[in-house]
Specification:
CATH architecture of the largest domain: 2-Layer Sandwich
Shape: globular
Mean pLDDT: 91
CATH topology of the largest domain: Alpha-Beta Plaits
Helix content: 25-40%
Order of helices and strands: HEHEEHEEHEHEEEEH
CATH class of the largest domain: Alpha Beta
Largest sheet: 5 strands, antiparallel
Strand content: 25-35%
Low-confidence stretches: 1-15
Number of strands: 10
Radius of gyration: 16 Å
Number of helices: 6
Strand order of the largest sheet: 2-3-1-4-10
Number of domains: 2
Length: 185
């Protein structure tokens, strides 16, 4: 029997809970896990859990801290001690996790869209790994019930859809709420 990536991820990650997605260099996932665990400790989370995923170059973390404050604090730490960031490339806060299913994505995006004020613009950004769902269908499902102006070039908020096989992390972020280490180092 051959498992589809979606089936494999649901069986592996179905019970996992994470609120950060961290990208790193391929084949450096173990080093990145140690680094992000250490960095989270430096900013006050001594009980974080950091794990590899089956996606090369991606790890996930569960922090007891607000994931948006984590990004802010890691940015501050990057300015003070850039040498501590050897393997971490990007840190993305995750607000909610759903099964990778268009209806579940639609529902979660509708609920979380209240973070986009009536006078704000938004765009949907999809980053997908290990799924056969077309990006266009994900974007359409995500935006279907959001009655706000779209701005693809310079939005006030980004509805970020991070597909990791059978699980999808969703967040509404301001562009500066994603830490891109290489750009900021």
């Amino acid at each position: 029997m051959t498992l589809d990536y979606d089936d494999m991820w649901v069986s592996i990650m179905a019970n996992r809970d994470f609120n950060l997605i961290v990208s790193t260099y391929r084949r450096c996932e173990n080093d990145a896990c140690s680094e992000i665990w250490f960095l989270l400790g430096l900013i006050g989370d001594k009980e974080s859990v950091v794990e590899r995923t089956d996606v090369s170059g991606l790890i996930v973390a569960k922090t007891s801290l607000d994931p948006f404050k984590v990004v802010h604090e890691l940015r501050r730490l990057l300015k003070e001690k850039p040498e501590e960031f050897q393997y971490t490339l990007r840190v993305i806060p995750v607000e909610t996790i759903v099964r990778t299913d268009l209806e579940e994505i639609r529902k979660a995006c509708t609920e979380i869209s209240s973070k986009i004020a009536e006078d704000e613009t938004f765009r949907v950004t999809v980053e997908k790994r290990h799924t056969k769902l077309p990006t266009k269908e994900i974007v359409e499902a995500a935006a279907e019930n959001i009655n706000r102006r779209v701005n693809l070039e310079n939005p006030d908020k980004i509805l970020l859809i991070e597909v990791l096989g059978g699980l999808t992390g969703i967040s509404v972020v301001k562009p500066e709420e994603i830490l891109s280490v290489m750009k900021e180092k």
